[in-house]
Amino acid sequence: MGHSDTHRRLHELFNSRRYDEIEAHLAAEFMYEDVAHALTVKTAGEFGDYLRGWVASFGDAVIGSPQYLDGPDHSVCTFHGRGVNDGRIGSWPATGRSMDVVFCEVLHYTAEGSVLAGELHYDQLTLLGQLGHLSDPGTAAGPSAERAVRDLFRTFDSLDAEALKALLATDGQGIDERSRTWIRGREAIEAYVTELVGGLSGVRSTLRDVHAREYGETAVVTCWLDQDYTFDGIPTHVAAPTTVVLRREDGRWKVVLIHTVPLPEEAAT
User: Fold this and answer.
1) pTM of the prediction?
2) Can you list the domains of the chain with their CATH numbers?
3) pLDDT > 90 in the chain, percent
């Protein structure tokens, strides 16, 4: 049995989510580096958690179209990592988009044939571009302000409170349409988001007449929001002129202000 056979077997075990069997192939001194992510894991247990992290971000993640090469004490595999992004990647919200990215993995072996070390190489910008987090996969400029706002409401529709909170600036502000009061500061907004998401279901947001203007590190996006949802068992439809102000922080747009106040039904028609 050559090293490439072991490599192939590990990929088959990943595709069938048999993490414990993967760990059984690893040496006690095992170390693995995700080069694109600048991440190193140093134990078999950590490696299992790392693999589970990929599946948490891509529930149907699969290693496809693999090509294996044998070396005297190593093996190399190029493959396509495929899957639908249905979970967060760090602070990036799930987008529901698919990835199909070429990976190159090198594994090194002990004299007994256990996996001693590994490195994984891939283009992280291509990955983020395919998921819609970069407007141009060839740059690190991040998504446009319009894309950021569309992702904001898409995340709201998914009722992922933690992903929503990750999109907010620390000094953000918004309006509570029910109490007709302002909510100011991250702590107050996060508490509001948690409470709101807990009572909502069946949310569907539609944006039209979207207009975005970027002013360096600041952006203003205006649009018309039509939204349907059920809150505490009561179906509701709202129509609201909406303004979102964003500020770029570490290459990502963060929401500083959401100003959306539903109009009375007669005024919205």
Assistant:
1) 0.53
2) 3-130 (3.10.450.50), 145-268 (3.10.450.50)
3) 58
